[in-house]
Design brief:
single chain; mainly alpha; 5 helices; 2 strands; 5% strand; disordered N terminus
Length: 162
């Protein structure tokens, strides 16, 4: 996670450029890692509640799914903004397209969740099956993004130990 950048501001001509170590913001990474798993749990819970609603027809499950989607969307915004800054405005050269793919998959998942929130605001009988399909799409996109990011981080760890 570290990158060495040569400083071009040299006081004397005889001195060599001094390498300056630039790092990612620890606070930004900590906020990202703190808030990133919360929306995934909320969206998976909404998918489970949608399945239960489709099987039982109890309105409670549909309303609970709508609340989980809304709360998940609120918590999804913070890590995506941090990820936006870390991926697109990095302190160092981006290492891989995997981080960008993860960002776009999470972005698409948030868009699907926004549409899902609109679907869940309908009358109870108008929610199914579109609500469940959007919940499935949201969870699948988040899972694929997580797998891509995790495999990239795993490759980085393996390269570090070689």
């Amino acid at each position: 996670m570290r990158n060495l950048v040569h400083c071009t501001a040299v006081r004397r001509k005889s001195e060599m450029p001094i390498p300056i170590e630039r790092r990612r913001s620890r606070l930004a990474v900590a906020v990202y890692k703190l808030f990133d798993p919360i929306p995934f749990g909320m969206f998976v819970g909404a998918l489970i509640f949608d399945v239960v609603y489709a099987k039982t027809g109890e309105l409670l499950w549909m309303k609970a799914a709508a609340w989980l989607i809304a709360i998940g969307l609120i918590f999804a915004i913070i890590p995506r903004l941090v990820n936006l800054a870390l991926v697109w405005f990095p302190a160092r050269k981006p290492d891989s397209a995997a981080l960008k793919i993860d960002f776009f998959l999470n972005f698409l998942a948030i868009v699907a969740a926004i549409f899902n929130a609109f679907v869940h605001s309908r009358d109870a009988y108008g929610v199914m099956p579109a609500g469940m399909w959007l919940s499935i799409a949201t969870v699948v996109l988040l899972c694929v993004g997580s797998v891509v990011r995790t495999s990239y981080e795993f490759d980085l760890e393996e390269r570090g130990h070689d």
